[in-house]
Amino acid sequence: MLPLKLLSRDWRGGELALIATALILAVSSVTAIAHFSDRLTRAMHIQSQSFLAAERVLKSSREVRAEWLHKADELGLRQARTVTFASMLAAGDEFQFASVKAVSDGYPLVGHLEMRQTVDGESRVVQQGPQPGHVWLEARLLPLMQLDIGDQLQLGDRSFTVSGIIDHEPDRGANLFSMGARLMMHSDDLAATNILQPGSRVDYRYLFAGDDKALENYVKWLRPQLTLHEHITDLEEGQPRVARTLDRAESFLFLAASLAVLLASVAVGLAARRYGLRHANYVAVMKSLGAGKNKILGIYIGQMTALAFIATAVGLAIGSLIQAQAVNLLAGFFPVTPPPSGLRPLLVGLATGLACVIGFALPPLFRLAQTDPMQTLRQDWSNPDKREWFGLIPGPLSMLLLIWWLSGSMAITLALLTGLGLLVAGAAAINRLLVRGRLAALGGSWRIALGSLQRRAGFNTLLIAAFGTGLLAMLAMFYARTALIDEWKMQLPENAPNHFLVNIAPYELDGVKQKIAGKNLEGTEFYPMVRGRLIAVNGTPVTERDEKDGAIRRELNLSWTDTLPADNKIVAGDWWNENLKEGVSVEVEVAARLGLSLGDVLRFSIGGLETEATVTSLRTLDWNSMRPNFFMLFAPGSLDSFPATYIQSFYLPPADKLFVNELVREFPSVSIIELDKILENIRDTIGQVAIAVESVLALMLVAGVLVLIAGVRASIAERLQEAAVIRTLGGRRQLLVRSLMIEFGLLGIAAGLLAAFGTEATLAVLTQRVFDMPFHFHPGLWLLGPLVGALLVGTAGTLACRSAVSQPPLKVLRELA
Amino acid sequence: MSVMLQAENLHHRVTTSEGQLTLLNDISLQLQAGQSLAITGASGSGKSTLLGLLAGLDRPSDGRIWLAGEEITAMDEEQRAALRARCVGFVFQTFQLLPGLTARENVMLPSELRGERNAGRRAQEFLERVGLGHRLHHYPRQLSGGEQQRVAIARAFCSIADNDVSSSNGILFADEPTGSLDAHNGEKVIDLLFNLNAETGTTLVLVTHEQRLAARCGAHLRMDAGEITAGDQPGSLAEVSA
To answer: Which of A253, A813, B4, B125 is the one with CA 20 to 30 A from B24?
Structure first.
């Protein structure tokens, strides 16, 4: 029981409070981030899976074999079905082409529908589609067809009651280019309409959800049986844009958690080191009183175990409370309530506590047990142990093991290990420059500050590395978050085109242009388009292998223009010019997949006729631009002999939505693809992910500040004593304050410079390897790093030492004695 | 009367950046139980080093030491610590009270390290005997220098006293016990030390600069440059008698 008795006495003495605080903050910040990340990741997955309205989707152009669905039943999967096709609706004298979606009971399996029962009513969340005999319509169909809620509408041979307006449909983006306004009906009514006949163009989707393992087994069982007509998909394939956003966000959250672990452990390490140093005389006294090394170890390990147990428990509780509070505060921003997290965050917190104690808190105690009892007689508390650096090994090692466990990636773990090594080496180099500098020649306060830095040269290397790690984590996370959010915003700018007009006949072109211009809408230019298939390359027919490429299997949209479209970039060859007036420009990725290069001759079949063109350039383009993009762009005039239609995209503000009806009425043969709802859904998800990233950044800042405080406190006692002696000798208060500001400011600048270097290197790896984004150099960082370092470390250090200048020196010396 | 402390041909050398340094050179001495010995000498003469070796805090480079009948130079650190716990007490120049513990808790510490149950009662009795019964729950920073040294003396006697606080088979080592005190407080502490020594029969070895204090001891050794330069048999086995 002696360790516990001593623990409570030590606690009163304040010695253990610092280490316990660091440990509690370490465990709580990591637990909070782990909880938060876990819950957000789950929420994001639910939100993102709602893009499919399921966890897996089997797509087919015809009904699938019944045994496939029985197998899903056997595995305990939940199922639903949607059937989507285009059809004409009739209501009185009004006829309108619409995109019909018949949904079974249970739809949607993931996510929800939002609908209104009156035109002016409140939108409400529902978990199932219309009942048999009823249909729900997209709002703009009502005025277009002179309909009201409760009216009858004819679809094929069956009449339906219009009983709702659809405001949100989770998987609206599933068929990106479905045309016409939506009508939703129950799939039981499908047969009675007699619309679907053999050869009808129909999109069947079978939705599945359930246990991960069962889903995995089902997909494994099903995949070998699929033909070219069927395809099973998950989010990654179904919504690559959202999947990529999620991947990056998860990488960010994981990195944040790892860095929080690292920061927190540095804080514990610094506090434990200080504890060890401060207790050297305790141990020497106890040894002279007859306590052997094993007894001392028993006492301190017992104490630390008890402390670790209490601090970890408190840390886990605080971490859980923080995340619960954070989720509550941010509840309004989440389209989906984040579900409770599992046990993993608690395990991560527990492992962090253990790793901090084993790696950082115990090594100083083992060294402490070696304390020479003769020190009580020599009155020398300096640490003669040359193995101090040896004691630094278990900490980083335990952290790396923890990060390895968290990430499951040896590459990331080794990258961190290398980074840490470089950081310490950099700290030693900067420290060397600092203490050898000639700044002391600047006079009074500078001489005191530089003298202090020189006396603690060894420890300062550790301190600069610790401050550098703290600043690096904060800066790297700040810049990574900025890069991610900017990239996400760029993916979908506010006024990105959200409607496509296709099939504009040449005779309608001027009228449509006038209509769009009359409404002052922002739109792209109108591109001519003919449909054709690539049938041969350099005289060789495209093989079956090539035909598996989606771009080749189907008909391609071929276009021509004399101006290189915005967002396109020539990466090989030349764009049309005085000397180059014929040929075809090919998108670079499809060229790579098909093995095409400059000079290859491509043969196309267009409406039964054939034409050839030579590849004269390769282009990159931005698929996120929401503009018409083409794999193949011909030179102007090359396709003049083929009948063309035109395509254009434009941005329509939500308030002007009924403009679509005007277009439909005026240009009935023009098809309008409405992407506004899909983009809105994607924006919601990206917004949610951005909030998660911002919140985690705030937690990281707290962990970073903790390291700074622990670092300052670890070196404060000696500084207090020196300051008190200088005051006793007549040193003025201002002189001391200035010297403290200079000393900590210089340490902060050194750490900031190091952090700027480390952040730049981290961002280079992060953006290119993890986030898959281009890397840009950050000149501002090299100014910001040292500035933030000087401000934070300088302020924290000066404030922490304020008692040395505000209290009578005798009191300070007495308290330190 | 039995031999409490005996040292034979002690040599102690340390290696520094400037080469090997001899701290003690061929020291021998013998001290009977219940006697008192003063070791004096200039700073750096090796007296504190000798005190530490005699108490088993360190091992000499050469030579042998017997404490309470056991050869401590043949023991490992754990065994020496166990012996110290049984029969050695210390008083330091700078008191070495643990700042996080109250006066009572500081005095209890040796008994607690030995796993004794009545540590609190014994500590209180010793504190009362040094006149600090009213300061039991004060922290070192709340005590004057003289009071702190009295707590340290109570702790030292507590570590060597038998359950019956009026008798002891132990030995008390004091390193400059009045070095941090003014004359008045120094005098009070010395009186206390010798009174308890006499009352309990404890053997006393103290290092001091003060001739006045050395004069109160039964025997006196003077050291210079690591050697005994004055005493009953300087330079060889010092048979110190009261």
So the answer is: B4
